[in-house]
Amino acid sequence: MQSLDLEIVLPHRLTHESRPARGARASERASTTRVWGVLGGIASGKSSVARLLAGPDGLAIDADALVGELYARPEFRARVAQAFGPGVMAASGAVDRAALAQRVFADPAARVQLESWIHPAVRDEIRARLAAARASGVPRVVLDVPLLLENEAEHRLTAECDALIFVDAPLAEREARAVRSRGWAAGEVARREAQQLALPAKRARAQHVIVNDGDPTRLEHQARELTLRLETLR
To answer: pLDDT tens digits for 118-142?
Structure first.
């Protein structure tokens, strides 16, 4: 597979000066900003929980949304098309992310290649937005990063977190949600999770658990209670 020599930079509203210096230490963080990381299985509702925990005055950093911004860049679309072929491109010229996922999840080398382009760009953008939030005194930043634990050796984002929250949802409910909202085939959630850190290990790393059983009122209540509890901790 060929790759293009392109520099991939995500679009954002931050200035260059807002980006953190390399090697910035945890002691340099703004003490007024709390950072929480959200863990859980695929389609467990992590993004919903992250938004609820952040609240109207906080910031939820959604890694999947940042990936979407990356795929929207013409130079990145060209890179994907050249490396993986026209079969992963839609008629509109956009990347067919479902077709691309099917391609790379069936080919470990292709997956490694794609992730080597995506992860550094998204990682840099997360750190830039986190630094800007701290500089602005945002009270809460919630990291919604699907591979927060799996790739922590590379991004070290868990070291930035004051707390980790696990979102617990039954597999059957998550499978149904993925079929309904993402158009995935039955069994796709379990297949992809088999290539990730096991859920019991993720839950063991978390200090707090929120149960998402499909009841939005209960979910909001749990998020509100946990926010109040965490904000009393130093």
So the answer is: 999 999 999 999 999 999 999 999 9
Does residue 228 come out as left (phi exceeding 0), alpha (psi in the -120 to 50 range) or beta?
alpha
* φ and ψ of 183, to 5 deg: 75, 20
Q: What is the rounded distance in angstroms from the CA atom of residue 180 to the CA atom of residue 78?
A: 30
Domain around 50: 33-231
Residue 12 placed within a domain: no
Task: Please provide residue 170's backbone torsions phi and psi, each rounded to the nearest 5 degrees.
Answer: -65, 145
Q: Look up the pTM and report it.
A: 0.82
Q: Residue 84: which CATH number?
A: 3.40.50.300
